Amino acid sequence: MTLAQFDNGYWYAAELKDFAKAIGIASASKLRKDELERAIKHFLRTGKIESPTKRNLSTPGIKDVDRGLSLNLPVVVYTNDKETKSFLEREAQKLAPGFKRKSGSRYRLNRWREEQIIKGNKLTYRDVVKEYVRLCQMEAFSQIPQVRYINFMSDFLAKEKGATREQAIQAWKHVKTLEAPNTYRSWLKSQFSKPKRRSTP
């Protein structure tokens, strides 16, 4: 497989984990999808294995949720479970009445939290809730290169005026069949390159 073939394909997390394990990437089962893609692309480019993350993949100890979540509790062993998510929602409502969760905010919150820990910054759940509210109040997020589906859907629905979600999903299925990057631009180009039907007399 070439790097271009990998980039033009759409890979499920399970497929990436199997590929990563096959080429010898350590702790493949604990890596996120974007980290798996980064490690595999580095291997395809160089033939070498390199860790795609600086975060600690092993977090022994009692989970924060089992210690009793509170705003003053230090973030030590964070879990993305139902109880933690409910806690964030409740506290966000108190901090910003009328709060509404923004799509993609939890993903970005987790990346922000990991970055702070890598930098050695100590966090409490108060810090996490404040950042969650800030993210949800942003007008728009910058796109995340690895999440092709989310980027494609947002681009398609923004630029194809009046398009439905079902139409966007069908367009996504089509773009995955192309030998091209999985982007709205590729889909649009494929529409212009379709041969025109002859009108019948």
Describe the protein's architecture and organization:
The chain is mainly alpha-helical and 201 residues long. It contains 10 helices and no strands. Helix 5 crosses helix 7, helix 6 crosses helix 7 and helix 9 packs across helix 10. It is flat and about 60 Å long. The relative contact order is 0.09.
Fill in the keyword field for this structure.
disordered C terminus; flat; single chain; 201 residues; 53% helix; mainly alpha; 10 helices
Major β-sheet annotation? none
Structural class: mainly alpha
Mean pLDDT: 85
Q: What's the count of strands?
A: 0
Seen as an oligomer or otherwise, the chain set is single chain
- The backbone outline, from C-alpha atoms, is flat
Radius of gyration: 21 Å
Count of runs of 4 or more consecutive helical residues: 10
- Helix-strand string: HHHHHHHHHH
**Helix fraction by DSSP (H/I, runs of at least 4):** 40-55%
Q: Which residues sit in consecutive blocks of at least 5 with pLDDT less than 50?
A: 196-201
Strand content: under 5%
N-to-C span:
48 Å
List the helices and strands and how they pair.
Layout: H1 3-8, H2 13-23, H3 33-46, H4 64-67, H5 82-95, H6 105-118, H7 125-136, H8 148-159, H9 165-175, H10 184-192
Helix pairs in contact: 2-3, 5-7, 6-7, 8-9, 9-10
Task: Give a brief description.
The chain is an all-alpha fold and 201 residues long. It is built from ten helices and no strands. Residues 196-201 have low confidence and may be disordered.
